Amino acid sequence: MKSLNVLAPAEQHWSCHSCSGCCRQHEIEITAAEKARIEAQNWPQTGEIPPGQPLFEPLGRSGRWRLAHQADGGCVFLRPDGLCRIHARFGEAAKPLACRLYPYAFHPAGGRDVRVSLRFSCPSVIANRGRPVTDAAAELRRLAGAALPSELQRISPPALADGIPLRWSECQRVVDELAAWVEIPELGWPERLMAGGLWLQLLAAAWRESPGERADEAAATARVLAKGIVEQLAANAAPQPDRVAWTVFRQHVGFYARTDAPTLRGKVVHRWKLLKASLAWASGFGRLVPLVEGLRPTAWKQILHDTGGWPEGSDALWRRYFRVKLHGLHFAGAGFFGWSVLDGFAALAAVLPVTLCIARWRALSEDRKRITLPDVHFALAIADHNHGYSAGVGNRAARRRIRLLGRDGGKPLYALCRRLIGDER
Ligand code: SF4
Asked: In angstroms, what CA-CA distances link 358 with 11, 20, 58, 172, 376?
């Protein structure tokens, strides 16, 4: 097979620091071949796994399997020193593919090109700790080869919007432009994100009107229009989000403010907690039920209070986050539930206000009024744990929520961002 052309994000560093977070928070689904391989490793004979501890759990009645977890929440193969038993005994290649890939994500980008993104649920990714990702080219090629189908050419680029397919070259130009919007230092985050979404909507409208003429002029005209509209909005008082926008956004935060609970899955007590949490997020009344360790029951109204500015370091984190996700095509097409660039960018933009809400929740849970950079790291790790991976943020209901927030050129999402983030500039 011809070698893959792996394109890694230049600004991102990463090395595993064995914190074992991923081995506790993630459900690792395994293939039938991986299950057979692990069974052949004869774990009961090693004495490393307590008698009676199952190695696998069925995934409902689907006929599929995942790795089991210990009573303390860690993966069945997690050692007390944070290392993996399979890795230690048989080497990295013997582990399930999902464990080998994490925190990398590989997305086809046309021909032999593969774009690399990273999951910010890993604390070392968030903190940008370790060696430059670009230094790991050989390892990335090997992992991408294992993760992706051999017939890469058959994979289509994401659509720009419903009914507007893109060629790979067009997709790249569109993504480059989005990356440029999130870099404009003279605009605040609400304006940068709205400008990118608005530019996409104007471009989609122009291409729909004249499908044969996808000239650069349409993109340039949309650029001028989007910047003008956004600068005007920024100069005016913050628009007030309407009740629908608040309700939809609150529900959206509810789907991000949770982590897998592999040891609780399927248990009646957990289902009851999920139901209570869903009701609180839907109604906005009462105290929100935490589905993440480190949060305590808190009223939604409290989360909306101003917490006095983003902590130092947040701006650089957000720039890196958006660049990595855009560069790695980790927001649309194969990188995000098959969504179009337009819907996927709106969902990606919404991660910022969602993260702010979770960060405020964490500060309140520790009786603090101001959020700190560790709060932002904590919140982004949870949000990105779900973004692109949990059904609740990628199903039809989620797309309806995102389209409601993105209607009228993205004004509802912008109004929410100004209301929540405007104070935090
Ligand atoms: S969460 Fe990241 S740093 Fe921690 S064990 Fe997993 S890959 Fe390593």
From this structure: 26, 22, 32, 32, 8
Q: Whose CA is nearest to atom 6 of ligand 1?
A: 22
Q: How far is CA 120 from the centre of its chain?
A: 7
Percent of the chain with pLDDT over 70: 95
Kindly state the tokens that stand for 299: 């009223």
Spatial distance between the Cα atoms of 149 and 199, rounded to a whole number of angstroms? 33
If asked whether residues 13 and 67 sit together in one domain, one would say yes
CA dihedral 425, 228, 175, 208 (to 10 degrees): 140
Q: Is 21 left (phi over 0), alpha (psi -120 to 50) or beta?
A: alpha
16 lines ligand 1 (CB under 6 A): yes
- Which tokens belong to 174? 């569109």
Of 19, 78, 125, 128, best ligand 1 pocket probe by most atoms within 8 Å of the beta carbon: 19
Q: How far, in Å, from the CA of 112 to the mean position of ligand 1?
A: 29
- Tell me the pLDDT tens digit for each residue of 377-407: 999 999 999 999 998 999 999 999 999 999 9
Q: Are 9 and 117 in contact (CB under 8 A)?
A: yes
With a 6 Å cutoff on the Cβ, whether 127 touches ligand 1 is no
Q: What is the tens place of the pLDDT at every residue in 120-143?
A: 999 999 999 999 999 999 999 999
Domain count, the chain: 2
In 62-106, which residue ranges form alpha helices assigned H by DSSP?
85-90, 97-101
The answer to whether the beta carbons of residues 219 and 203 sit under 8 Å apart is: yes
Residue nearest to atom 4 of ligand 1 (CA): 19
Question: Is residue 119 a contact partner of residue 384, using CB atoms and an 8 Å limit?
Answer: yes
21 CB near ligand 1 (under 6 Å) = yes
Mean pLDDT over each residue of the chain, to the nearest integer: 91
At CA 367, angle to CA 363 and CA 372, rounded to 5?
30
What residue type is assigned to position 218 of the chain?
Answer: A
Both 66 and 189 in one domain: the answer is no
What residue numbers bound the domain in which 424 lies?
A: 157-425
Q: Which of 125, 154, 183 is the last residue of a domain?
A: 154
